[in-house]
Amino acid sequence: MNDIRLMEMVERYFRDELSEKEKILFQELRRTQPDVDQLVVEHHFFINQMEQFDQDRQFRSSLGEIHNKLASEGKIKRPAGGVKLVYLWNRYKKTIAVAASIAGVTALIISGMITSLTPKTNIKQIENLGRKIDILEKNQNHTRRELYDVKNKIEIPGVPAKFGGTGFLIDVKGYLITNAHVVSKADKVTVQNRSGVELNAVTLFSDERLDIAILKISDSLYKPLNSLPYFINRKSVVDLAEPIFTLGYPRDEIVYGEGYLSAKTGYNGDTLACQISISANPGNSGGPVINKDGEVIGILSTRQTSAEGVVFAIKSSHIFKVLDELKKDSVNLQLKMPASSAVKNLSRTQQVKKIENCVYMVKGY
Questions:
Q1: Residues 285, 300 contacting (CB under 8 angstroms)
Q2: CA–CA separation, 58 vs 239, rounded Å?
Q3: How far apart, in whole angstroms, are the C-alpha atoms of residue 115 and residue 4?
Q4: What is the residue-level pLDDT of the chain in tens, covering all 365 positions?
Q5: What is the number of H-type helices and E-type strands within the chain?
Q6: Do 358 and 156 contact (CB within 8 A), yes or no?
Q7: Cα–Cα distances in Å, from 14 out to 3, 43, 113, 221?
Q8: Cα–Cα distance between 255 and 230 in angstroms, integer?
Q9: From CA 193, how far away is CA 174, in angstroms rounded?
Q10: What is 156-365's CATH number?
Q11: pTM of this prediction?
Q12: CB-CB contact of 191 with 168 (8 Å)
């Protein structure tokens, strides 16, 4: 992002045109970059001064018009020659109006720079703006780096994530479920929402046998949802051929997949899991398996390499077993699990729109 784009963001910030995500990123940028925050403060002061100047101009213009009207009606006498303010105003009001419109001209120049960076721009016309851009140019490299850092929230220079998978919320306060194998070898864990904002997280509990881990988003940028749209099936009662769908992160964006339940047990008759017929790829691990009523019936975990479309999911009933173990270690832990599905009678498209905000990419470093 160049300096002009940053100035455009400042303008949009004052006009309250930023999206919620942009506001979070911009506020974080102000907090971590003093020069940018100073720019915002100075620009706000500049706008206020220009608005005040324009208000003064309008007030003086109104006084002049009232004075002329009263004089023409004979209600007051025109000054014989001592005070010439009104007459000077009438004579030079066009010139004064032009001088008092600096704020408007400046705003037009800024807009022109944003939409068209042509070399024909008159430098003298943007002298005031140039001082603010100079402040940014002094820290141009730092500003550009900071914008990218804030977008991803967590920066680990030159060190890509070693492990990746998917997780989904089981409590609005930021508790997530994923597979244990996704985070078992990670020294640091983050989660990323579908908007691309990466947040710090911690692993609270991991059960290698069940292949289930519980994470907690520990980042101040996280904003809890009002409620979760899906219901987590405690009994995992499912029928063969029951339609199911999944959401996950085999790519850098969320991916939808659909299929059906093909067996009530997993690989070689494993009773902890069930078999589903669906397309899945590395990165789908930990994603929710959801039926047509919006109930989570499993956690997608593994696939059979020797057969196409043979995928296995840990039954959702085991989520509650892991939670019970976690509660033994954390007596004060209070989780509010969704009590029912809010997407039961919705179309699949509407179900996905409501659920996708609860599904995160999980990264292990």
A1: yes
A2: 76
A3: 10
A4: 556 777 777 778 778 787 877 778 877 777 777 777 777 777 777 777 777 777 777 877 777 778 777 777 776 766 555 454 455 445 555 544 544 455 454 544 444 544 444 344 444 434 322 223 344 444 444 444 454 455 444 444 445 778 889 999 999 999 999 999 999 989 999 999 998 999 999 999 999 999 999 999 999 999 999 999 999 999 866 789 999 999 999 999 999 999 999 999 999 999 999 999 999 999 999 999 999 999 999 999 999 988 888 999 999 999 999 998 888 877 677 888 888 999 999 999 999 999 999 999 999 98
A5: 10, 13
A6: no
A7: 17, 10, 18, 21
A8: 18
A9: 12
A10: 2.40.10.120
A11: 0.59
A12: no
Q: Which residue has the tokens 């914008």?
A: 147
Of 356, 217, 336, nearest to 294 by C-alpha is 356
- Amino acid present at 116: S
How many residues belong to the chain?
365
Buried b (16+ CB within 10 A) or exposed e, 202-233: ebbbbeeebbbbbbbbeeebbeeeeebbbbbb
The residues, ordered by sequence, that sit 6+ positions from 75 with a Cβ below 8 Å of its Cβ are none
Q: Is 269 left (phi over 0), alpha (psi -120 to 50) or beta?
A: left
Looking at the DSSP bridge assignments, the partners of residue 182 are none
Look-up of token digits 């997949």: 257
